[in-house]
Amino acid sequence: MNYIEKYRLWVSKVTDETVKSQLERMKGHDNLIKDAFYKDLEFGTAGLRGIMGAGSNCLNIYTIAQATQGVATYMKAHGFKKAAITYDSRLNAQLFSRKTAEVLAFNGIECVMTEECMPTPFMSYMIRQLGCDTGINITASHNPSEYNGYKVYDGNGCQLLEEDANEITRYFTAIDAFEVKFKPFEECLKEGIVTYNDKSLEDRYITAVTSQKIFGAKGLSVTYTPLNGAGYRLVPRALKEIGAEKVEVVAEQAYPDGNFPTCSYPNPEKKKALQLALKYAEVNGSDIVIGTDPDSDRLGVAVRHDGQYVLLTGNEVGILLTDYILSDMQKRGVLTDKHIVVKTIVTSAMVDKICAHYGVKVVDVLTGFKFIGNVINKLQQRGCEDLYVFGFEESCGYLKGTYVRDKDAVVASVMFADMCAYFKSEGITAVDRLNQLYDKYGTYFNVTYSYRFDGADGARRKQALLDQLRAKAPSEIDGKAVVKVTDYLVDETGTPKADVLRYNMEDGSQLIVRPSGTEPLIKCYVTLCGTRQSNEKQNESVKKYLDRVFG
């Protein structure tokens, strides 16, 4: 069935007034119809994600119901009976979460829901604490306001790995979205097959988070922005409980709002997302700035240094926290050569040098925090999950502790504030400490460049570019000979197969290319390790090379 036929089918079947009006607005606009129907949504590194609206390639109550019936079929096939459901601050998030509960309940599956939007890591905690078999989180993380998403978790509180995700995909692709049955939400509540979680669970989660502290945050002042997201209550609470002297919240971004009126792209990795927070900090003189994305699993930060606010990258924060945590464990005499730090393959290689200094092992995994969570699962199966020290990915996701199996910006906020308070007590800043580490291990420069390919035509071009790279690998990049090419789809790397290409150059620099699993992007991860001056110069020429290839 082509996209026009799909469109006509939807026009004839849809009964929901909102979706009907969206279909009507597409009439006569072939490009809109094509983008909405040229393919069906697929599971990526974080489940389903797409633009909200009518169409098989969009998030709406029909595709949500279809996906949920797929999950229900999967759960019944495995004898699973209980699911956790939550959502973030996005538009339609509560509507989609209720539709999810209605479909699961019709299938006889008990559901425990949050009454309001909550951070993504709370979903993982809820699953583990309440003995749920599956979890569903309605979130599009840091994407722009027109997006929403549907993340599925296993009974460990970890996002589904490929085998399970593929099984669900097989089920829901065989389902007619217009034939999915459900039980009205209010009826579900009355019957008790859908309930809300006990509020004490939130207190226990905060205790689990704050118990990760090392020094505390006494004497530290913080400006915080939840970017109109789900961290708006729990992050300030956690910071205050570890002793932060003052936590100033950006008023315009203090409460959930899926329109993100002051920040169209609520990604704390980007400087623009922290602009309001930086203005607040300039006025109130905060020691640090912290921002979390709409589902509060990613962290962005800035540090006051020599009177200016310096933004740190995801790699830099992870490097600092790795050293800080290992140093503390070494001082306390509890660090052994069996302890491990986990990072993704696109994360800074400087971590390897730091861990080698402390005599601990680094485990590299594919992009996606579920792979870090799965390392903890395997340790737990062996009865030694306490060997996990810290895990992070360059895209601002961090986890200390094993109380959840997902990245957690609440604990990351706690640990970053804790670390900065300790540095302040020593008369230095996080920037000072980072420079000390660069002097010791080498000046690593890591940057990610993203190239966007929207719509059906963009998707074809994106795939064609990746196919071309596989067919003919570059012999040099920026005049530096490529000495090793690794294709994670075919090479034996010790990790699962993945659509990732890695190029190692003669001077030790590295380029990794991969399509995003959550956005229509090709992402290019550049690693350089020279002097600050040479890194800057080489980065400029590498960027020009990438622009020629992908621009």
Q: How would you portray this structure in words?
A:
- The chain is α/β, with parallel strands linked by helices and 551 residues long.
- It folds into three domains: 3-198, Alpha-D-Glucose-1,6-Bisphosphate, subunit A, domain 3 (Alpha-D-Glucose-1,6-Bisphosphate, Chain A, domain 3), CATH 3.40.120; 205-439, Alpha-D-Glucose-1,6-Bisphosphate, Chain A, domain 3, CATH 3.40.120.10; 443-550, Alpha-D-phosphohexomutase, C-terminal domain (TATA-Binding Protein, 2-Layer Sandwich), CATH 3.30.310.
- The chain is built from 18 helices and 21 strands.
- The strands form four sheets. Strands 1-5-4-2-3-6 form a six-stranded mixed β-sheet, sandwiched between helices. Strands 16-21-20-19-18-17 form a six-stranded antiparallel β-sheet.
- Helix 1 (3-13) packs across helix 3 and helix 10 packs parallel to helix 15.
- The longest helix is centred in the last third of the chain and has 19 residues, at 532-550.
- The two termini are 32 Å apart.
- The relative contact order is 0.10.
- The model has no long low-confidence stretch (mean pLDDT 95).
Keywords:
single chain; 551 residues; Alpha-D-Glucose-1,6-Bisphosphate, Chain A, domain 3; TATA-Binding Protein; 3 domains; 21 strands; 41% helix; 21% strand; globular
